[in-house]
Amino acid sequence: MSHCVFCKIVKGELPSIKVHEDDKVVAFMDIYPLRRGHVLVIPKIHQQQLHDLPAEYREHLVNTASRIAKALYASPLKPAAVHYMVNDGPAAQQTVPHVHMHVLPRYSDDSLGFVARLLRKPFDLALGPQKPAELEALAADIRRQLA
Ligand code: 5GP
Ligand code: ZN
Q1: Cystine design at 19: which of 25, 47, 103, 142 (Cβ 3.0–4.6 Å)?
Q2: What CATH class is the domain 5-146?
Q3: Beta-strand pair 25-29/101-106
Q4: 45 in ligand 1 pocket by Cβ < 6 Å?
Q5: Average pLDDT per run of 10 along the chain, which is 147 residues long?
Q6: pTM for the full model?
Q7: Directed axis angle between helix 55-74 and helix 132-146, to 10°?
Q8: What does residue 45 show for φ and ψ, rounded to 5 degrees?
Q9: Cα(17)–Cα(31) distance, rounded to whole angstroms?
Q10: Does the CB atom of residue 28 touch ligand 1 within 6 A?
Q11: Pocket test for ligand 1, best of 32, 88, 127 (most atoms within 8 A of CB)
């Protein structure tokens, strides 16, 4: 049994709403999304920081994140831009010590709303995750575009 939450997701010991999986990476919906359509892409091996990953995992992680972004653009969410984000160590607000790339839909002039959402996140963590049915509907939209 792993102690890392994301290793548990990789092994299927914890449920997740996946949009993509292959031999090297898993992409799934963030359960405390900063934005509708917030996806996390993780390697299937446990490393805390991006530079610790074997190059082929790092490359595949970034390629997968950009495929997810392309799917988001084509989905009904229709973002104007995406935010790729890696918090690469605890001092950079990394809360799960397993490499993950956030892919976040962004919209024109949404900066204030985005910051407000960031500030609310600690309360969400205390109150509980987003409803699985809502996440599943968004995941289905993304999967359709990846297919
Ligand atoms: P960090 O702050 O480390 O860059 O991001 C960790 C992310 O993982 C957060 O956005 C958080 O909402 C998400 N997260 C934490 N635990 C779980 C979980 O059990 N399942 C899913 N799907 N996401 C999680
Ligand atoms: Zn791990």
Answers
A1: 142
A2: alpha beta
A3: unpaired
A4: no
A5: 91 97 98 95 98 98 98 97 97 96 95 88 86 95 97
A6: 0.96
A7: 100
A8: -115, 150
A9: 9
A10: yes
A11: 32
